[in-house]
Amino acid sequence: MIYSLNGKIIHTEPNFVVIECGGVGYKCLATMNTLRSLPAAGENAMLYTQMLVREDAVELCGFATTAERNCFVMLMSISGVGAKVALAILSVLTPEQVALAVSLGDSKTLTKASGVGSKLAQRIILELKDKIKKLGITETAVVSANTAPVSAAVNGNLPQAVAALAVLGYTPEEVMPFMGGIDVTLPVETIISQTLKAIGKQ
After folding, report:
1. What is the pLDDT of residues 2-56, one digit of tens each?
2. Is the CB of residue 86 less than 8 Å from the CB of residue 60?
């Protein structure tokens, strides 16, 4: 399993980038959000990768952040969502926006992506919410894992942010240590973003 690539960008197109590592050029399918974050051709870049193995091909997908990669893997676990659809969703929405849409049950936001109709959007939300329930993500779990005052956890946007982060594959126990200094009255998407940045700095 190739976890990441770090090398020189030698070619880009609207849906992929080629990174040269050790004299070998690796083609990585990528989202528009990732492609926009990359430097120009000839510069060095690092991508987190996910390998796709099919009967007729082996492909790599590259992501600018682990959050985007985790969200891609989560989306791919849903029936009816292939790599093309998952990449399309993450081309128009950030991982934070996907997580928030799922936690709010906002299927309309997901339909902004090419190839995602209302039925598929509703299935994505239903199946990801079910995964969150199986992880035991509840306000009680959030409060018990929280290092901040309990009243702040209950009254602020923390429970919703933690539930949304579960969409990206994080448990309350994993994210709460990074939320200690975050203002729980901030918008949910901001809390998610700040938490992911804190995790990335670890």
Report:
1. 899 999 999 999 999 999 999 999 999 999 999 999 999 999 999 999 999 988 8
2. no
Over the stretch 42-101, which tens digit does the pLDDT of each residue have?
999 999 999 999 888 889 999 999 889 988 998 998 988 999 999 999 999 998 888 888
Retrieve residue 9's tokens.
């960008």
The sign of the dihedral angle between the CA atoms of 195, 104, 35, 171 is positive
Provide the residue ranges of all domains of the chain, joining segments of one domain with +: 4-63, 139-200
Residue with tokens 């090419």: 114
60-63, long-range: CB < 8 A, 24+ apart: 60/2, 60/5, 60/26, 60/27, 60/28, 60/29, 61/28, 61/29, 61/30, 61/87, 62/5, 62/17, 62/19, 62/28, 62/29, 62/30, 62/34, 63/30, 63/31, 63/34, 63/90
Q: What tokens appear for 185 in the block? A: 């009255």
192 close to 199: Cβ distance less than 8 angstroms: no
Query: What's the pTM?
Result: 0.76
Asked if residues 118 and 111 have their Cβ atoms less than 8 Å apart, the reply is yes
Select from 2.60.120.10, 3.40.50.150, 3.40.50.1000, 2.40.50.140 the CATH code of 4-63. 2.40.50.140
Inter-residue contact 73 to 50 (CB < 8 Å): yes
User: Which pair of tokens denotes residue 157?
Assistant: 């946007």
Exposed (0-12), middle (13-18) or buried (19+): which is 196, by Cβ within 10 Å?
buried
